[in-house]
Specification:
By secondary structure, the protein is α/β, with parallel strands linked by helices. It folds into 4 domains: 1-33, no CATH class; 37-338, Rossmann fold; 376-560, Thiamin diphosphate (ThDP)-binding fold, Pyr/PP domains (Rossmann fold), CATH 3.40.50; 573-698, Rossmann fold. It has 26 helices and 22 strands. The strands form 6 sheets. It has a 6-stranded parallel sheet, sandwiched between helices. A 5-stranded parallel sheet has the order 3-4-5-9-8, with helices on both faces. The protein has a 5-stranded mixed sheet with strand order 18-20-19-21-22, with helices on one face. Strand 11 (410-414), helix 16 (418-421) and strand 12 (440-442) form a beta-alpha-beta unit. Helix 17 packs parallel to helix 18. The radius of gyration is 29 Å and the shape is elongated.
Length: 700
């Protein structure tokens, strides 16, 4: 006989079993409530009230989305989603992304209900509190079971495109006619706000072009945003837009109650293998709230005590806060056994695969482990001063193509600037519909979407190492994605060329001035500006090895000499002495990228005049800051404050290295349209000016 949990005690649904000590009227009320609700309704309302109670206790959060999206989430997680709660990283799981990340209590409720160890009822009670595993928006590095970090609207659906691309690539690479080891879907719940954000259009347009049939987005179509009804700003036909992208579009007009229609829609989505699917599920934000449902008032604020009570009454929910009816919890927790069986079956499939395809299986296991091949770095190109000088975008090209045959996990491309960025992997084909095994990604002019997609690829768990490229100035178009790479510990490699006013005639719109400073301000992002071929190889070495930290490489358009004293290994220190006395010099010249060779030539002239000059190359601030104080003092002795920094960019941030008696040759305005050499000369990047400014610092 079904049971009821009352005050921590289990009773059968029989009045006769009720101890005399209990309030029979109260208990009978509970019985009638349970009897009036189906098991499915109990499960759905469990989501709703965990979200309501969590937000109410925190007095902060977004209860409306979880309340409205609970039915579609129940159908998805109960009937379709393949996962193992006790092993959140099981490889062949379906990926679930809550793109509308403000509704995070929806995901936390689902994780708790299905039995993930990462979210307990106590974690639910600590929603949005310091140190909790239930932060305000889903964070992959805080909560196992959360695949990607979402919050800024539109990012999650783009991550989903990246996850689907990774699945498609791995499937095409490793599956055999008689053995399928990669076979999973990416499901995304997105909202009106996600569809308003331009970045979602970038990524979803590409997804349609690529025909990513295993990407299914459920659109929580509730017509409410923070400002109120979307009639004030968002009246387009979203379905037609997605059809134009090349998506299948299915509409569920009654997503509040019609579970069968939701199920049928997902089934139809899975049958369509040649294109992604958008399921428009019409819902009511804050469903069940008598006074706040279908209003902006339930979007981003707690319901309040009176409205919580009214909602409980309206939905027949006679349970204390954070209490889940036992029948519902037992049903949800079937996911544990189901997930264990799914993983067990897959393990058997993989064991069979391994017996037949040992070499492929070994590579597959290596990729998933994140372990790089022993000695892989031996492929990195090295240079001597006698070698022809090349632009660092060219040495980047040489490095990428040296790495690619050794590291099959390397995959990437450019935002329609392949032949300017020089990022083509030669001989590895284009990743297109029907050829997902290829490794050159064609992003089109979609910088923001490109970055967000690469975050998804990096966080797929397949060991893939994504890189993406554009001009350095256009990092501003993808800054949100770069920031989230750093926050979510996604080891994306950003290849940015045309890194200064030296790019020339395109002028100030294309000449980055403040860009380096702004990128260096992002925590956990390594910004490299290599001075020559060796430093380029060194930057890639670090970027490849650090899988939980993104890297951005700023590369020149113009040719640079290969410097005496540069090395691959030295880059790992962030800054190193390229030349000059180990004793206290008269002056330290500090350069990055193209300006290091300028410092070298200026130093030679100063030495010829009898000055003791040290030249420091500083390819990466962030790596330098990781060094101990002893090493830092060998580069910049505290007793020697006479320094001249030379970088063709804003001075912002350099104060901590300039020293109390130092100076900097920098650019504090926008650039100019002129040949690169003339632009550099205008802003003082000449040997003569460096020598003159150095003498001024020395007081000579």
């Amino acid at each position: 006989m079904p049971t009821i949990l009352h005050n921590g005690i289990r009773y059968s649904r029989s009045f006769r079993t009720l101890p005399l000590s209990l309030n029979r009227r109260s208990f009978l009320t509970e019985i009638m409530v349970v009897a009036a609700q189906s098991l499915e309704e109990l499960c759905i309302n469990s989501i709703r009230f965990l979200a309501i109670d969590g937000v109410e206790k925190a007095k902060s959060g977004h209860p409306g989305l979880p309340m409205g999206a609970a039915p579609m989430s129940f159908v998805l997680w109960d009937k379709f989603l393949r996962f193992n709660p006790k092993n959140p990283k099981w490889f062949n799981r379906d990926r679930f992304v809550l793109s509308a990340g403000h509704g995070s209590m929806l995901q936390y409720a689902l994780l708790y209900l299905t039995g993930y160890d990462s979210v307990t009822i106590d974690d639910i009670k600590q929603f949005r509190q310091l140190g909790s595993r239930t932060p305000g928006h889903p964070e992959n590095f805080e909560t196992p079971g959360v695949e990607v970090t979402t919050g800024p609207l539109g990012q999650g659906i783009c991550n989903g495109v990246g996850l689907a691309m990774a699945e498609a690539h791995m499937a095409a690479t490793f599956n055999k006619p008689d053995a399928t080891i990669v076979d999973h879907y990416t499901y995304v719940i997105m909202g009106d706000g996600c569809n308003m954000e331009g970045v979602s259009g970038e990524a979803c347009s590409l997804a349609g072009h690529l025909g990513l049939g295993k990407l299914i987005a459920l659109y929580d179509d509730n017509h409410i945003s923070i400002d109120g009804d979307t009639e004030v700003s968002f009246t387009e036909d979203v379905g037609k837009r997605y059809e134009a992208y090349g998506w299948q579009v299915i509409t569920v007009p009654d997503g509040d109650t019609n579970l069968e229609a939701i199920q049928s829609a997902i089934e139809a989505a899975k049958k369509e293998t040649s294109k992604p699917t958008l399921i428009k599920v019409r819902t009511t934000i804050g469903f069940g709230s008598p006074n706040k449902a279908n209003t902006a008032g339930v979007h981003g604020a707690a319901l309040g005590g009176d409205e919580v009570a009214a909602t409980r009454k309206n939905l027949g929910w006679d349970y204390e806060p954070f209490v889940v009816p036992e029948d519902a919890l037992n049903h949800w927790r079937k996911a544990i056994e189901r997930g264990a069986k799914l993983e067990e079956d897959w393990n058997a499939t993989f064991a069979n695969y391994k017996s037949k395809y040992a070499e492929e299986a070994a590579l597959f296991e290596r990729l998933l482990s994140g372990k790089l091949p022993d000695g892989w770095e031996k492929c990195l190109p090295t240079y001597t001063p006698e070698d022809k000088g090349l632009a660092t975008r060219q040495t980047s090209e040489k490095t990428l193509n040296a790495i690619a045959p050794v590291l099959p996990e390397l995959i990437g491309g450019s935002a329609d600037l392949t032949h300017s960025n020089l990022t083509l992997l030669k001989g590895f084909g284009d990743f297109q519909k029907g050829s997902y095994q290829n490794r050159n990604l064609r992003f089109g002019v979609r910088e923001h979407g490109m970055g967000a997609i690469c975050n998804g690829i990096a966080l797929h768990g397949s060991g893939l190492i994504p890189y993406c490229a554009t001009f350095l100035v256009f990092a501003d178009y993808m800054r949100a994605a770069i920031r989230l790479s750093a926050l979510s510990e996604a080891g994306v490699i950003y290849v940015m060329t045309h890194d200064s006013v030296a790019l020339g005639e395109d002028g100030p719109t294309h000449q980055p001035v403040e860009t380096l400073a702004s990128l260096r301000a992002i925590p956990n992002l390594m910004v490299f500006r290599p001075a020559d071929g060796n430093e380029t190889s060194g930057a890639y070495k670090i970027a490849i090895e650090r899988r939980h930290q993104p890297s951005l490489l700023a590369m020149t358009r113009q040719a640079l000499p290969n410097l005496d004293g540069s090395s691959i290994d030295a880059v790992a220190r962030g800054a190193y002495i390229l030349s000059g006395s180990d004793d206290l010099p008269d002056i330290i010249l500090v350069g990055t990228g193209s300006e290091v060779s300028l410092c070298v030539t200026a130093a030679e002239k100063l030495r010829a005049e009898g000055h003791k000059v040290r030249v420091v190359s500083m390819p990466c601030w962030e790596l330098f800051e990781e060094q101990d104080e002893a090493y830092k003092n060998t580069i910049f002795p505290k007793a020697d404050q006479k320094r001249l920094v030379v970088e063709a960019a804003s001075s912002f941030g350099w104060h901590k290295y300039i020293g109390s008696e130092g100076d900097m040759i920098s650019i504090e305005r926008f650039g100019v349209s002129a040949p690169g050499g003339e632009a550099m000369k205008k802003f003082g990047y000449t040997v003569e000016n460096v020598v003159e400014r150095a003498k001024a610092v020395m007081g000579k």
